[in-house]
Write a structure and sequence with these properties.
Layout lengths: L4 E5 L4 H12 L3 E8 L5 H14 L3 E5 L1 H17 L6 H21 L3 E3 L4 E6 L2 E6 L16 H6 E2 L7 H10 L21 H9 L5 E4 L5 E5 L21 E7 L4 E6 L4 E12 L9 E6 L7 E7 L5 E10 L6 E6 L2 E12 L1
Parallel strand pairs: 1-2, 1-4, 2-3, 4-7, 8-11
Antiparallel strand pairs: 5-6, 8-9, 10-11, 12-15, 12-17, 13-14, 13-16, 14-15, 16-17
Amino acid sequence: MSGKKVLVALSGGVDSSVCVSLMKRQGCDVTGLVLSLSPAHEGTVRAAESVARALDIPLIVAREEEWFQREVVRPWAEAYRRGETPNPCIFCNPSTKFALLCREAKARGFCQVITGHYAGVRLREGRYLLKKAAFLPRDQSYMLYRLSQEQLSLLSLPLESLSKEEVRAIAAREGLPCANAPDSQEICFIPDNNYPAYIEKRFGPMPQGDFIGPDGRVCGHHKGLLHYTVGQRKGLGIALGRPVFIQSIDPQTNRIYLGESGEEYAAGVRLRDCRWIPFDRLPGSLRVGAKIRSAAKEAPASVTPLENGGAQVLFDTPQRAPAPGQSCVLYDGDWVLGGGYIEKQIL
């Protein structure tokens, strides 16, 4: 790597800052790039500028708020308004973050893009593959499953084999002010994490509608579909004398259907808009490990291709409340096969 020009996605946090340090130690010619995608990102820009000064590297500030609104915020908000539960990072990574990083890298002559994600990339038989991190509690491969071959070909992930404690120790050794900074937990463009208020302020209020109880009768009124998610039990404002949960959300009728506690498990899911990493399309039925949300445990399952780029996933053991709009990501051991957006449950 000595002498190679690399572009590091720099947020000012400990992970991306340590990536800069590791690349400099390898003799790379390092430049940082921070994405300013919304008014809430100004703090990120200032933090990145501070780290760039401390580590003595040039910094590019890419201000792409219009792009971010078009590619991430609007489709994410529209999905919520349809009663889905989308993950904005899943939208952002292929369409915006890595698209912009790769664009700048190619335009400015950088040979690699570096980010602080905990995962790995390998080239095998002409195909770029995505691998889980060695330190599984920090693994972020789920968030990267929609990256293209072109994006993976430029990507290097130096934190693949490190634990968070090791990363913080490197930051402390380098004297970085972010060494003990807490991990970010909120949606990056919504600092207070109140996404329903953000969406309604930007795109208009949602109409109220009916809760339909397990017996098929109206049992209350909801305050708008985007305030709820499949599997939710708390905060419904429904008193039926027994526990219930949100079984399904119907945007056509603006109704939310409730189920009895204990009935929230699905035998499988149907996926749409699938992306695959080791192959262009799913070659046939496969045995896989499936994650129905980023924090879920991996579940043994079988996947079968469907028409129009979809797939059907059947779990060996029913899984609790897979929510439409979330991603189901599929694995072969440590390797990411791909996945798609959950369209509906298979009961």
